[in-house]
Request: fold
Amino acid sequence: MRIIITGGTGLVGNYLSRLLEDEDVVIVSRRDFDIASFSSVKGLFYRIKPDVVFHLAAFTDVDKSEENPVCAFKTNVNGTNNIAMMADRLKSYVVYISTDFVFDGKKNSPYRENDTALPLSLYGKTKLEGERIIENTCKQYCILRTSRVFGKNGRNFASTLPLRIKKREKITITTDLINSPTYARDLARALFEISRKRFQGILNFCNSGWCSWYEFGLYICRYYDIDSSLLVPVNISNFHNSIAPRPVFSALDTSLFARFFFRPRPWQDALKEFLKQEIS
Ligand SMILES: NC(=O)c1ccc[n+]([C@@H]2O[C@H](COP(=O)([O-])OP(=O)(O)OC[C@H]3O[C@@H](n4cnc5c(N)ncnc54)[C@H](OP(=O)(O)O)[C@@H]3O)[C@@H](O)[C@H]2O)c1
Reply:
């Protein structure tokens, strides 16, 4: 089986590449070429003729997307369109990763796959547009929505928080943005299982349960036995580092995923394993 992973050098891509190291995998990132270039994507697909494409590459900085909408749109929409067109042409099965940020966060209970998507941020809008492109262009696909991914070498807040806490940095952290943390290792396994079964349609995947960023930080402080007063709790309205509007409650309901695959473990168990095994 020939596999392409776009965004293979990113947080999720790293875990997935390691999981698939015995397979015939080609990993591409921005260093190889821009997915927004159709001729580059076309060349890659005709060279590899992939059976499966994990399309992970994206402009993932939520705040920078507001400042630089053209770049976010080019990668997340035009890039996804190029991948979708070539995958359909070569009859490849596509797994596309999307986000809880496609929801407005006003539901008060975990979002199901068929809930109405109403993104607040430009990033969320471009990822939703990507979903629509995949649905409308590809015959064989899965759209996997996930949230707050953490793992080793990740550049995002969830991944860098443990090291910042260990360095006893003072960190301003929100108490009122709630979603489900997801360990990239568990997510990689979910992606792999989905591709083996060729699941068709939309699925949610995250670790079970949900928490605020503050609770996530408190768990890390407790794990290292570090005084949690270095975490400065604030409401999102007082958090000036954030530019993009975000959903206040965007936990994802994973019961559909659990019915076809496996039951995701609680976020606390996954985070504990990450801290123990990957953060020394
Ligand atoms: N992290 C989260 O919390 C989260 C939550 C929900 C959904 N997601 C989705 O999950 C996927 C993976 O996220 P991640 O956290 O692993 O992302 P990441 O660490 O930011 O990595 C992004 C990857 O995409 C590549 N890339 C970016 N722009 C590109 C372009 N124009 N052409 C080719 N490659 C490009 C990057 O290449 P370089 O390394 O060369 O820059 C990198 O390999 C994304 O689709 C994201 O929207 C993530």
